[in-house]
Design a protein that fits this description.
This protein has 359 residues and is an alpha/beta fold. The chain is 38% helix and 16% strand. It has 15 helices and 13 strands. The mean pLDDT is 95.
Length: 359
Amino acid sequence: MKKIKKILIIIQRANGDVLLSHSLIDSLSNHYQGSIIDLLVNDDTLPIAKLLPKVNSILTFSYKKKRDERWMQEKKIIQKIYRKYDLSINLTASDRSVIYSLLSSKKSISAIEKKPQKSWWKKILLTHYYFFDIDQHILVNNLKALNLLNINKVINNDFPKVSEEITNKVKLLLEREKISQFIIFHPSAQYNFKIYPKHLRDELLEKLNSLDIPIIISGSNNKVDLEIKKDLPKLKNLYDFIGKLTLEEYFALSQLSISYIGMDTLNMHIASVQNKQIFAIFGPTNLSMWSPWSNDQNAATNENIPLQKYGKVTIFQSSMPCVACGKAGCNDNNGRSECLYTIKPEDIFSEIKKSYNDA
């Protein structure tokens, strides 16, 4: 393993998974100095992958192409990766990603499922494997490959700042709006079942408006975010930035902010790697894997309670006994999450106000 010059890391999951792979990439780059590290990610996570430091090139997999031209896409990917690497590390346990890992290198490491009926062949063919554990934080799961390579595991959740050029561009935008100190409120998530209901969100925004601090509403140009944009309340201290920034510009905005308020989504994890104060609203999401990582305490949480704090993180959850179920809504099919409807805006605002009064 000492003669590792080319490494492929495969991450076929969501934006948060890609963002939180940077600690693994950093560790590999430091250990195998001079090595080239490539990524294979889903195409909808490409923007965040492009911001990761120490990455040479990025290959993408498209679910749209899977539907339209499945075998042609597979052929092209395999042609690009086949035996091109000295080491492959796959962070996802899916059959496809394991096969990519096996084909790209003779030395392959992968996460696998604990169920033998799904993983028996993977255990036979892979050089090394580890069990993906939903009861452990994604950062910890992503670093398990280091144990198999006898590399010291150091969790580094700091993320390099964006360029001065981008930061100055965002500062200029803030100056035009006469904004100095501000908080970010991120109302959306990748899926509707993770979004705080509109009537409760509006009530919370009205209460936040009373703090007399600029509230920047963040979001992208996707369908979910643009629907929220249409119905934002008109408030004195509310500034609508939905659809106005690139992802890199959002990184700069987040870095300049006082704190993050909003849903458990990529933007929350961006605030986490930047060591920002976080007020996160959680629905059915599994906290043990996806709670914000605290750089101060070098830990996250796996406890489900209506209100908890650790480091600079405050998490709000429902008191319903089913929380957190880990399902995609109560019907497990992207439907309504009843637990989000029971989190009171006044409880969230009380903690936020208390924090600002103590600052």
